[in-house]
Amino acid sequence: RLARLYSKRSQSDQALNMLSQAVRLNPQNLSALQMRYQMLQADGSPLERAKVLMAMLRSNPAMPAIVAALADETAQVGLMDESLGWYGVALNVYNRLGQLPPAQTAINYSAELFISGQAPAAIGWVSQLLQFDPTNVDAWFLRLVIERGNGNKDLYNKAKHEALVALTN
User: What is the model's pLDDT at position 33?
Assistant: First the structure.
């Protein structure tokens, strides 16, 4: 509570100290860990954010959004294999909880698949997402990038036409 008060007063150093003390006293304190992660998003290093995300997972492993955030962090620093592994875990947890993953998680996973040379799997995910939400601009953009990267002009032109129709509608 004191960390929140310091944060509202824009005393971020004192807030971080209180959060560190709260986590030291109770490493499973999820609210303190979440607040620390939010504060680190602005100026923390990827390593610091990843450590907090891992601590949050130790506190409650059934949080697929946290696993997806860890996958995003590892992808942003270029750890492709690790990020694909974390995305797989996140999607598995979403599935086991009976929840649909957020569109952005599916897009990020598809992009990482494409970057890693797994274009067919990436296009499969993007196609599923577009069936569910045909107005998702990011998904259309990624599909166009993938189709252009594959080098098949006919598939690219078809995707471009479909994107134009869907986005115009």
Answer: 85
Q: Measuring CA to CA, how many Å separate 51 from each of 2, 27, 102, 107?
A: 23, 12, 23, 24
Angle in degrees, CA 63, 68, 71, rounded to 5: 135
Residue ranges of the chain with per-residue pLDDT less than 50:
none
* Helices assigned H by DSSP within the chain: 2-8, 12-25, 30-43, 46-59, 64-76, 80-96, 103-115, 119-132, 137-150, 153-168
Q: How far apart are CA 56 and CA 32, in angstroms?
A: 9
Confirm if 58 and 28 have CB atoms less than 8 A apart: yes
Residue 42: its pLDDT value, please?
Answer: 79
CB 135 within 8 A of CB 166: yes
pLDDT of residue 135: 87
pLDDT at 31: 82
Q: HSE, CB side, 13 Å, CA atoms: give it for residue 25.
A: 7
